[in-house]
Design brief:
eight-stranded mixed beta sheet; 288 residues; 10 strands; two-stranded antiparallel sheet; globular; alpha/beta
């Protein structure tokens, strides 16, 4: 008896990844601009892509809530007693649907100054589950040659950039974890966002600012106070591509933190405040 020829089965992952490629192929050029002079650097804090991380219950969400024009995309419970505009994101399909809807409703987007993903850790898990389910695998490592991780990376980057392309900036919130790294041939512990390394690499490359919220000693204070760190060290992941923020921002409460951040991006207002303070000092001295 003649043997039956086996039908070639096309891998599901390649068929799935085809969707993003097909979407990219459909894109057309709307307008092209040629700048005759270099554009001026700067912008409002709400225009940037920001990653904010720190230990649980330290005030990350509350800080984001104080940003004018913020719109939350919560991926976890805990917003029942939280007054803010929001759309709950329980899975990756909802995240995609939300972005597509916003792309069709620019008037809704115009009411937003900044999106807040709270947390990016959960959103990353949703994306990984979606990419793995689409490829019919349990984990990205189940596919050879790193194809599973590549599909996850492409999926997350694609939709994060689509959200950013809507106009408003993004602040992505993450919890904190300690990881061991080797520095100068010594093992040390480093504070980092609690998300898969692949996701952190994506956001580290895309984000303009990485803020680490923690506690630190302040001159004149006996107990440590809350602070935002904006510069990387051997023991901390942080960064400020804008170059506008101080290395450390000590704050009394979340509103104070936001006020200091916004002032850093409004140098003219800061100068005026500085002049007012100098005048007050001069008046006090003259009275004495």
């Amino acid at each position: 008896m003649a043997r039956k020829k086996k039908k070639s089965v096309r891998p599901r992952s390649s068929a799935a990844s085809k969707s993003l490629a097909a979407e990219a192929y459909k894109q057309s050029v709307k307008e092209l601009f040629f700048e005759e002079e270099p554009s001026k650097p700067g912008g409002d804090f709400q225009d940037f892509l920001v990653l904010l991380y720190g230990p649980p219950k330290i005030g990350k969400s509350e800080l984001a809530r104080r940003i004018d024009g913020i719109y939350f995309l919560p991926t976890e419970p805990g917003f029942k007693f939280f007054s803010s505009r929001k759309t709950k994101i329980p899975n990756w399909a909802t995240f995609i649907a939300f972005i597509k809807k916003m792309e069709k409703h620019p008037k809704m987007v115009a009411q937003v100054k900044m999106w807040c993903i709270d947390t990016a850790d959960n959103l990353s898990k949703f994306c990984m589950q979606y990419a793995c389910g689409r490829a019919n695998i349990a984990h990205p490592t189940d596919e050879e040659w790193g194809k599973g991780w590549e599909a996850f990376r492409d999926e997350f980057s694609h939709w994060f950039l689509r959200l950013a392309a809507l106009g408003p900036g993004i602040i992505a919130i993450s919890h904190e974890k300690q990881r061991e790294v080797i520095s100068r041939s010594i093992k040390i512990t480093k504070d980092s966002p609690a998300m898969p390394t692949t996701t952190f690499v994506i956001l580290n490359n895309l984000c303009d600012v990485i803020l680490h919220m923690s506690f630190a000693k302040k001159k004149g204070k006996r107990d440590p106070v809350r602070a935002l760190f904006t510069k990387p060290t051997e023991t901390r992941d942080a960064g400020d591509r804008t170059g506008m923020l101080p290395a450390v921002i000590f704050f009394k409460d979340e509103q104070d933190a936001i006020n200091q951040i916004l002032e850093a991006y409004e140098p003219e207002k800061a100068k005026k405040k500085g002049k007012v303070k100098k005048k007050r000092r001069k008046k006090k001295k003259s009275k004495k």
